[in-house]
Amino acid sequence: MNKSTNAKTILAPTKTGVNLSKRIDRLFLLIAAFWTIVIMAVFTLNYRDAYSSAVAIAKAGLAESYNKDVVYRRWAANHGGVYVPITSDSPSSPYLAHIPERDISTPSGKKLTLINPAYMTRQVQELAEKQYGYKGHITSLNPLRPENSPDEWEAKALLSFERGEKEASSFELLGNEKYFRFMRPFIVEQSCLSCHESQGYKLGDIRGGISVSAPWKPVEEAMISHIHYTIMTFAGIWLIGIVGMFGARNLIKRNISERERADEERLESERKLLHAQKLESLGIMAGGIAHDFNNLLMGVLGNLELALADPDLSPASRRNIEQATQASERSAELSHQMLTYSGTGFYKLKGLDLSEEVRKNESLLKLNMPKTTSLHFEINEGLPLTWGDEDRIQGIIKNLLVNASEAIGDNTGEVTIRTGVMDCDEAYLSGSRLQEKPSPGRFVFLEVADTGCGMDANTQHKLFDPFFTTKFWGRGLGMAEVMGIVKGHHGAILVNSEVGKGTTIRVLFPVPTEVQVMDSTETK
Q: CATH number, domain at 479?
């Protein structure tokens, strides 16, 4: 196998299924985000409407209060004011001293004083503030009574009236409390001139204005209560929508996953069946060819040996026969590899320590590695023994190291060979590349990891196929031989690879419950 021959973890989920699941998640996240934005937008509009309605209601209430002040003020003005008994709450107004009949007496001697429209409005506003908290103020930029001077906000409103504004309203702090303030101008009418003509006012002039201020706290508390209820309502609607969406998402994903899983299982079953049939056919063919070829080679080698025994054989003929013998022996080695792949070879089993098998040829293994590749050993000592053929185990080590070094090629890289022991369950062993999975239990392992180029899915699928190679040279029997040997030892092979990052191949051999070392046991 060349640089591009590496493998990914077996039984990894298909990219199509993963991508589809991610697309579904993204779609529902977008829908959930859109749903959240819609709920927030509707809530915001609802809040703004509620706030605007509260302001409009407050403004309408203050406008109604203002209109009532204007109505009874106009009534009093049309009647030239009203007389009320002189009391501490209604003393004679010094600002009406220029009126001849400011104070009068009834025939019975009861003293009365004139209450003009401004005086009456002030008293009504003071009473309203005590009873309802509304603050009313009759004011002017040129007041007769100093207490009627405007505050800063009223002064700005009065100036705006002179520029043509019809009313003014805003939220302001009066003391430490927030109020909603409202003000409209007073227009000089004929009835106003009796008190204010001396100030130079004419009909239609802006005499001043009445400001009405209501505390905002009661309205705000009512709004907060409404907002809390609204938030709970919208949160409930949002939550129901989100739960429904993600429930639908999970249902869709489950249906799709079940369908994909069924399709994948069917395709995987078909693939494994076809692959097994292919390997079985190749194994039968390879075994048959190898047996017949061996028989022919035995005859050839026997005759060559007889020819070499001839004392009259010329030196040139002897050299030719020796070369033919060497070629026949190499052919026998190829036949041996084919028999190993087919599973019909013979094994000499005995109790082996994998770590010891690696240590035996440590120096030789290092010498056979390319100069650009460094070989590291991570060997665990004292491993339990496994049944194995020593020569075949050495063949596995050699083939895995050759495969790793070729994956690195002319680049600088590292190869690490490890040994160890582990307990494997059925789920882990299901990742084996062999069709026959061993039973769960304790296994010793031999692992070879490289920092080569890795391999794609198509190459990893063909990794152990006989005669498969991506090199321009070689027979492509190295990894197929590894598979045949592991199969003959009832083990497992696991491959983990990523393109551009390297490959790790782990070979597992079962640890028998009772090891009986057999030095010369031959089995087929």
A: 3.30.565.10
